[in-house]
Amino acid sequence: MNAFEPLLCVSHLVKRYEGAAGSPALTILDDVSLSVERGESVAIVGPSGSGKSTLLNLIGTLDAPTAGEILLDGRRIDLLAPAQSAALRCNRLGFIFQMHHLMPQCSALENVLIPTLAPGAPGRGGAAAQRARDLLGQVGLGARLHHKPGQLSGGECQRVAVVRALINEPDVILADEPTGSLDAASAEEVWSILSRLGRERDAALIVVTHSTSLAATMDRTLELRAGRLEDRAGRRPAQGAAR
After folding, report:
1. Measured between alpha carbons, how far is 206 from 8 in angstroms, rounded to an integer?
2. Quick one: which of 6, 59, 7 has its CA closest to 32?
3. Number of folded domains in the chain?
4. Is 47:210 a contact under the CB 8 Å cutoff?
5. Is 238 left (phi over 0), alpha (psi -120 to 50) or beta?
6. In the predicted model, what is the mean pLDDT of the chain?
7. SS3 (DSSP) at 116
8. Would the pLDDT of 1 be above 60?
9. What is the reported pLDDT for 113?
10. Where does residue 121 fall: left (phi above 0), alpha (psi -120 to 50 degrees), or beta otherwise?
11. Within 10 A of 173 (CB to CB), how many other CB atoms are there?
């Protein structure tokens, strides 16, 4: 990675779905560009249906853009083969969603360790298990390692999901309404944990949220509206170096 390049660079991104015969195409994202530095936190806000989750899915290689480029450390990731995308998600990207999506038959510890079992995961075995125990201890779940999701509160389950996203020490954390299903006290607690652990690992954090209070704690707030991305001052954000 060039010292002057951002960690993540999204350049002129378009996502369009073709309509049925005789129907116009539906454009979700229209010429979206942004850059994110290592350790930076960015909130993406906007009305429902504006494309926020779609943008996260594209950055996370869960979907492919119609046009544009996505670069991580200067490398095009939007062109990766499926197996390469899966390896990238395992090694360098962490995902947190509004619902925790924990495996109900697995304990908190086992849920956290699931990403370490994938081929090419950066750490496996005893070292990964110890890291998982340490992280769960840091989020106040050291005494609940072997509790299953049905034995945990909603806030506790979301804390497990945060640790799961961090277990492979990703460079970029993508969070889609990570506190949206929680009460105010639990949401504040989970967000505090996520932001603290992200800073400790110098990870870039991109969060889709409807919470103005959460967005106010981020380094930058960008707004998606009608498929276009703007900062809160009404300017298009800088896109960084494109290839």
Report:
1. 11
2. 59
3. 1
4. no
5. beta
6. 86
7. helix
8. no
9. 92
10. beta
11. 24
Number of helices and strands (H, E) in the chain? 7, 10
Is residue 23 domain-resident?
yes
pTM for this prediction: 0.86
- Say what angle helices 125-138 and 154-166 make with each other, to 10 degrees: 140
Q: Tell me if 112 is assigned to some domain.
A: no
Query: From edge to edge, which strands make up the β-sheet containing 172-176?
Result: 93-96, 172-176, 204-208, 41-45, 220-225, 228-231
| Residue 214, domain extent | 8-101+170-231
Residues 67 and 90: beta-carbon distance below 8 Å: no
Does residue 129 belong to any structural domain of this protein? no
- The CATH number of residue 30's host domain is 3.40.50.300
In a domain, 165, yes or no: no
Dmax over CA atoms of the chain, in Å, equals: 59
Measured CA to CA, the distance from residue 34 to residue 243 in angstroms comes to: 14
